[in-house]
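Sequence in, structure out.
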Amino acid sequence: MADRTDERVLVFAGPTLAGPPQLALPPGFALRPPARRGDVLEALAGNPETLVLLDGYYYTVPAVTHKEILYALDAGVRVIGAASLGALRAVELEAFGMLGVGRVFADFRDGRLDGDDEVALLHAPAEQGYRPLTVALVEVRHALPAVAGGAELLRALKALPFVERTPRCLEELARRFLGEASARELLHALATSGVKESDAREALALAATPPGERPRRYRPAGRYLTFDKETAVRAPGSRVAVMEGWRIAQLLHPGAIRFLRRLRLRALLAEAARRAGHEPAGDQVRTRAEVLRSVQVERFGRPLLPAPEIEEEVRLELLAAAAAAGPGGVRGALRALAAAFGIDRRQALQRLHRLFLEQPDLLPGWWAARAFSFTPACAPALRAAGEAREVHACFLRRAGGGRIVREDLWRLAADLWGCAPDAVSAEGARRGLFPGFSLSDGLREALEYIAAAERLPVPINRYREETRLLAMTALRLEGHRGDR
């Protein structure tokens, strides 16, 4: 899979562009399916300059979140919304920089329309060209001739669930409320043109214009959008998240503990550099980010991470290097940081390290997954995660709602790590896994994920082969050197 750097504009569309006449996208534009949660984050890995959101799922699967659009705007990407879900999100996020165009957007913005059902419809799958199976109420409003009975028709349609607004139902209601001639006029107008399609043309015309310089804003590092990144940033061509690969490495890679220690040290040094007033130059960040980006393109065909995540990884790396190169080196930087926290300088290293062990959220799980994604161990870990997911899914289907009890999971961890069952929690903490149910520190969830594959007497896929390959693969951090 090649890195598609020529795709400057990504258009999320389905039924809006499904009818005749078919719109030909200009060079540099790429059509994506209707957006679902995580698709905007995934799209940012290709460094697009513009995203056009027309259609999106929100009935059968989780919808595109406001936060991932805000994340794209923070990254300096122009985001245009129109026609359907894009119009709704543009109204909600106009104050934050999302651009809305078209009559549907204007109607929602100015209060003439409300309710998601105005633009909602059912459509056929991609194999059938996303052909609409029901009629969007907003289309009827704009195509309705100025005749008696129009208001009654709209009230009757509004009272129906959007999944029941089929063409046949519309035809019957139109004849009842409008009469035969006006009903034919309405149906002809709906068959030949539509307000959504017209708005889509306007959005694509705007997307074809240069976006101009858009400022990049960086949110403070922490839990901003963390859950979405953990679940949605995934390997190309699969539903395996980068975070899932990191979880496999935490459980099975012999270098995971040392890797995490270095990450904790880097986080401390980066904070020391920030407090000392250091800030990497933008050109330096972007140049180094291109190097890291090329590493992932070489391994996976495209970057795994949205562009802002790669740049944030570089910023941490450069800040830590600046602190280590300062007066007193690493120890001097840590002592200065300890003093800022009110910690005795003589106990700086021990106390700061203990702080990270006792307060896991000080080093979010996503930070570790992001750094891991640049190591050579990431590829086999992602493959192993994919194999484990298959076995886990089979187990869930056959278990009838049953789960592996905690004691068995702890015995599994003890076998994997060569420790006593009552030491599993402490050993997990050394690997960045803490007992609980959150994605950021879930020891139990990680063990449940692999338990079925680990306990099978005879492998049914390549899970064991991939885990052996993972264990033999180097896990480095410093400057990501030699990771190619």
